[in-house]
Amino acid sequence: MDTQVFEQALPNSQPDAGQIIERQTKKATFDLKAYLSQKRIEVEVALDESITVVYPEKIYEAMRYSLLAGGKRLRPILCLASCELSGGTAEIAMPTACALEMIHTMSLIHDDLPSMDNDDYRRGQLTNHKVYGENIAILAGDALLAYAFEFIALHTKRVPCERVLQVIAKVGHAFAATGVIAGQVLDLEFEGQPNINVETLQFIHAHKTGALLEASVLSGAILAGANKELLQKLTNYARNIGLAFQIIDDVLDVTGTSEELGKTAGKDEKAQKVTYPSLWGIEESKRQAQKLVDEAKAEVIPLGEKATPLCAIASYITARTN
């Protein structure tokens, strides 16, 4: 997306009453449930085709077991939505969208291990190590992480090589010790320690949860050729929804059931983890999450109708039940 196109999405003059009504009508008729359902189907098909079971079968079966276990597919959908917002297509972003889900799935496999968060259920089914054993679960996660980068490099078509390299670097940075890993390390270190403050908690979750969400939003835009101004707006959007997502996750861990969540409820309290509800209470946590969502939407609303999916997804983050 070049500068001229982006500037056209930000007119200098204020819209008249008719334009405002037209925009509000379009937003009111946007069916987020249908949008998420359709995008999820597209992602599921691509994921199913991404890994074939060959010799040695066990490792490929373990990879597919967790990768195809369902879930919201929020990260790949954000990648597709930001690419389309920026003037690209779902087709050019789909390999990266799949790779992001592979990396996310890898993080869940390892997060559920006894040496980490020690959980028996994920996405409503037994965790990978409960089915295949800890050794194969670790290797399945390793294989998904490595394959994700290969998948971006080999399957992204009709995109300049420098953009593909930018995406690979962005996703790698988001997961490494500069991103998800940093958050996970501090999450483990502060487990059972009641003296953690809000700033440290925000650092943990901005990295453990927010970094990959941010990479998901930005990678789609980078593939489409978004300029620096648009990338900055999408960065602000992504950082706000990333933190809001984790706050609501913490709330749901207290208020939800294991059946609703598809994983063990109440495990944060059992592990003596400091969470947003433990610092702020349930209602204040919800208020803070909503504030972040409002700030996220304010970043992309001026971009016009193409930003409607991102706005709706931001609202969904505080309304979700799992």
In percent terms, what proportion of residues is strand?
A: under 5%
Largest sheet: 2 strands, antiparallel
Overall shape: it is globular
Distance between the termini: 35 Å
Average pLDDT, all residues: 89
Report Rg.
Answer: 20 Å
Helix content: over 70%
Helix and strand string, N-terminal first? HHHHHHEEHHHHHHHHHHHH
Uncertain segments of ≥5 residues (pLDDT<50)?
1-22
Strands in their spatial order, largest beta sheet: 1-2
The assigned structural class equals mainly alpha
Report on the structure:
The radius of gyration is 20 Å and the shape is globular. It contains 18 helices and 2 strands. The protein has a two-stranded antiparallel sheet. The model is unreliable at 1-22 (pLDDT under 50). By secondary structure, it is mostly helical. The longest helix is centred in the last third of the chain and has 28 residues, at 228-255. Helix content is 72%, strand content 1%.
What topology emerges from the helices and strands here?
Blueprint: H1 3-8, H2 17-29, H3 32-50, H4 57-67, H5 74-85, H6 90-111, E1 121-122, E2 125-126, H7 128-132, H8 134-155, H9 161-175, H10 180-189, H11 198-208, H12 210-224, H13 228-255, H14 258-261, H15 267-270, H16 276-280, H17 282-300, H18 308-319
Antiparallel strand pairs: 1-2
Helix pairs in contact: 3-5, 3-6, 4-8, 5-6, 5-12, 6-8, 6-12, 9-12, 10-11, 12-13, 13-17, 17-18
